[in-house]
Amino acid sequence: MGTLASETHRTGATQPDLKLDVLRKTIPASGRVFVSVMRFLCALVIFSSVTPGLALTDEFEGTVSESADGLKDLMALFAGSGGVRAEFSESRYISILTEPIQTRGVLYFSPPDHLARYTSQPDASSIVTDGKQVTLRDRTGSKTIDLESSELARELVSSFAVLLRGDLAALNAEYEVDLYSRKGQDPLLASPWILDLKPRSSEISIFIERTRVEGLKNKLTSMETLEKNGDRTLMVFSAVETGLEFDDEQLEHLFSFKDDDRAR
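Structure (tokenized):
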């Protein structure tokens, strides 16, 4: 994993965070919380021209729907994956902007509920959660949200952790789930798989049309979130590491809620 200093990012910043500035000016506070938490949910490059309402088989020529047993086996792989580190490149497409907002950074997961997202470009920001609360930091300061008091934020945060820890029951409870793979290939051995997730919660479905995830074995390669208003977030993962065990020092640095300037 390298040294802790090289793995983490400082949350102070001197240049404007364009994404946060645009969102703060264009949507109300409740929506900003939604979008900030949504940074855990990202996007698939091959869905860059997705139109809402198209059948998944129309978008993925050459795929077949997998059985419930296939989904069970896939989630079992995730359940044994342990800690995760992945670099990401994200493009957020917003209808009021002519160009996508580009960000880069690193995601960390420590089961069952610790998630952290550190953005390094264009400016530093972070989101850290333990499943009970989430803290958002950027150049303007920090804000902590009690997830017990916000059903929307709680479900958005938990949905990503549910997938990474391989919680099949929770995934089925929160989403209508369809698993697809390439024809004639075992999705758990040699073929990329595709998860199509439609939220069951009315709190989330107001905002999100669907989320689609692609991976190979127990590693995510990309994910897309398509919002009801047509906006979408597209993220591609690279340098994905699984089976990690974070020691106490790493847990303190990567998943700390302390509001300070330590490098992460």
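The first strand starts at residue 63 and ends at 65. The chain has one domain: 9-254.
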